[in-house]
Design goal:
- By secondary structure, the chain is an alpha/beta fold.
- The chain contains 18 helices and twelve strands.
- The chain has three domains: 37 residues, no CATH class; 258 residues, 3-Layer(aba) Sandwich (Aspartate Aminotransferase, domain 2); 125 residues, Aspartate Aminotransferase, domain 1, CATH 3.90.1150.10.
């Protein structure tokens, strides 16, 4: 049929209804009457178009990217070269295990590395992102309680400072969400938690350090409270870059962990992908992992589908393999220096925090881990909100930090420098933030007109949201 269509082409860009022998097979209203109207472009025209688009895009190769809770660290180019090796990038995921031994060995070794780093007993590499890992982990929690006859456990406790995906992932698994408040130190309020714990609680979902960048000092007490109640603890690994090599979720008492390989382990992310969110579990939960898992059978590596109580596959094939290659390369390259990476990330965050506090409000004046949260409340009182500060930063070639999150901090400015940046870069960022604060005092109109140096200048956010201009202009 396809041959007939091309043979009957009228020599233009389209095929008329009268000349199409499929008339009567395909409904007439679905057949094109005229030419398709695509622009005729040379390869050079196309290359220039995409080069212009890439020039407009901000990336870590262009400037500092201090997005809190996103860990936009540098992605070593050696990772890219290794992921492009022919035996990796040209391997089809449906090939037999005998034809995939190199890839399976890499995945197995990555699993073993993640087990060491998290302290857990078993790993799945299937989930395609952090939130997908959360969903997988909570599906495991649900299946576990169903299998031991405790279907009444319908509640999941989530701190008020949590990543928004935490309650969303638990809700998608059918759990009811119960919020626990933070105390004056920005940590889970233990007394409030005690009031929420009952026989219907399946788990608590926590990030440690939490989204304020503060380490939960009473995590072991929380762990005991939950386990004494027969409940499980879920660890959101988005902030794992702060503790890698210094402690691990197992030592804190957690039962299920997801890791963001595209954050902690340097693989590229942003713009919706790519990502990888492996889930690690303690021994009593390993029979619920998605199938298959990668195992070693004698001298061979195999995909094992024999998981008696598996929640089933959560993704086509076996994970974002290119991301797994990059993460494993990073682990091999860093070795024991993974611990140093975390130390430098914590040092950098505390350095910036100490330089900016006082000029910007610091709601929780505690030693931070890899990130910290300021408030633009002082500046807001002078007529400039946090969004204005973020836009002014763009005029100095800095990507704005995460703003307005976590929700428990009004006018929040969440800053995470990672370990990648030099002191000179950090000092430049600090100087710019101080300059913006001074501008707000003496000439706020400069800030109100920002950004001015970016490809797209100041826009009306309200109008853009209510009446977006979606018309393509060639």
């Amino acid at each position: 049929m396809m041959k007939t269509i091309f043979e009957k082409s009228n020599g233009t860009d389209g095929i008329s209804v009268g000349e199409c022998e499929l008339k009567g097979v395909i409904p007439a209203d679905l057949l094109r009457e005229g030419i398709i109207g695509l622009p005729q472009l040379s390869e050079l025209d196309v290359m220039r178009h995409y080069k212009e688009l890439s020039d407009r895009n901000f990336c870590i190769e262009k400037g500092f990217y201090p997005l809190g809770s996103c860990t936009m660290k540098y992605n070593p180019k050696v990772n890219e070269l290794l992921a492009l090796l022919e035996g990796f990038c040209n391997l089809h995921p449906a090939q037999e295990d005998d034809d995939s031994q190199g890839a399976l060995e890499l995945m197995y070794n990555l699993q073993e590395s993640l087990k060491i780093l998290t302290g857990m007993d078993a790993v799945t590499l299937q989930p395609a992102a952090g939130a997908h890992g959360e969903l997988t982990g909570m599906m495991i929690v649900k299946k576990y309680f169903e299998s031991i006859g405790e279907k009444n456990r319908k509640k999941v406790i989530v701190p008020d400072s949590a990543h928004g995906t935490n309650p969303a992932s638990a809700k998608m698994c059918g759990f009811d969400i119960v919020e626990v408040k933070s105390n004056s130190k920005g940590q889970v309020d233990i007394e409030s938690l005690k009031e929420l714990i009952d026989s219907d609680v399946a788990a608590i979902m926590m990030t440690n350090p939490n989204t304020l960048g503060i380490f939960e000092e009473k995590v072991l007490e929380i762990s005991k409270l939950m386990h004494d109640n027969g409940s499980l603890l879920y660890y959101d690994g988005a902030n794992f870059n702060a503790i890698m090599g210094w402690t691990n979720p197992r030592l804190m008492g957690f039962d299920v962990v997801h890791l963001n390989l595209h954050k902690t382990f340097s693989t590229p992310h942003g713009g919706g992908g790519p990502g990888a969110g492996p889930v690690c579990v303690v021994d009593k939960l390993k029979d619920y992992l998605p199938s298959p898992v990668i195992k070693k059978d004698g001298d061979k590596f195999v995909r094992d589908y024999n998981i008696p109580r598996s929640i089933g596959k959560v993704r086509g094939f076996y994970g974002n393999f290119g991301v797994l290659v990059r993460a494993y390369a990073y682990i091999l390259m860093m070795g024991l220096n993974l611990k140093l990476a975390s130390a430098d990330a914590v040092l950098n965050a505390n350095y910036i925090k100490e330089k900016l506090k006082g000029v910007y409000e610091l709601p929780y004046d505690e030693p931070c881990m890899h990130e910290f949260v300021l408030s633009g409340e002082k500046q807001h009182a002078q007529g400039i909100n946090t969004l204005g500060i973020a836009k002014r930063l763009m005029d100095s070639n800095y990507h704005p930090p995460t703003v307005y999150f976590p929700l428990i901090v009004h006018e929040a400015i969440m800053i995470e420098p990672t370990e990648s940046e030099s002191k000179a870069v950090l000092d430049g960022f600090i100087e710019t933030m101080l300059k913006i604060a001074k501008e707000i005092e003496i000439s706020p109109e400069k800030v109100l007109k920002s950004p001015q140096t970016t490809p797209i200048k100041k826009v009306d956010e309200t109008l853009a949201a209510r009446k977006p201009d979606l018309v393509f202009k060639g």
